[in-house]
């Protein structure tokens, strides 16, 4: 880690590194425009392995920051040099207290591959903004220490301010390239163990910026007879469509079309025929109860 930090002086930094602790502010000379993806799960914050205070400081320096819930990689691109190893951004990794290893390469293909990996992690992560930081700073940090559990909670549930939308699934005819990107994103957000898997879907989206889905928004997907809860993944523009994914396993909460219609003071016919809409505060509360969603605040606009 020491060699990585020394190499970063006055060079552009791109990194996907699982944990970045408080001491990282004094180690890595980040600058405006640098891009860093970290593990921003609630457990990483609660253990202190990822520091909300550090991320706030970097955010105020105009560093591009992303929170990935299952990241455990340590990949850096410093200028035209790639580093892939075991060290996190921490004082312990910087000093001789632990044995770390890394491969350093200036090979153009390897550097390009590392840069692409980091970009893919960012594309399938939550962009860290002021609202996300407000949430992260409220996570109590354990003082007893202990190991950091990798992705202990299903990443399907939102852990930052989010909106809820209701609407029908649409058939947009993804290209092979778009489908491949969706599958890559789905693997990054996989359910751990053998509890289930994610499937990719498309939802109709309004053309206005005010009606755009953003991570980690949820979509109550209306089908002919039932309703499936889906999470927005990313924009794959094809007409008026956005891409999302849903989970199929025994822990998924499923509801009938009638139950959802009643919660929204609507009818099954109206839900099937209308384009999707962002729900209001009363509808949001009813859907949170119905689908057992975290009662976090709505995304600021």
TrEMBL record:
This is PLD phosphodiesterase domain-containing protein. It comes from the Bacteria. SUPFAM superfamilies: Phospholipase D/nuclease. InterPro entries: PLipase_D/transphosphatidylase. PROSITE patterns: PLD. Residues 67-93 form the PLD phosphodiesterase domain. It comes from Micromonospora craterilacus. GO terms for molecular function: catalytic activity. GO terms for biological process: phosphorus metabolic process.
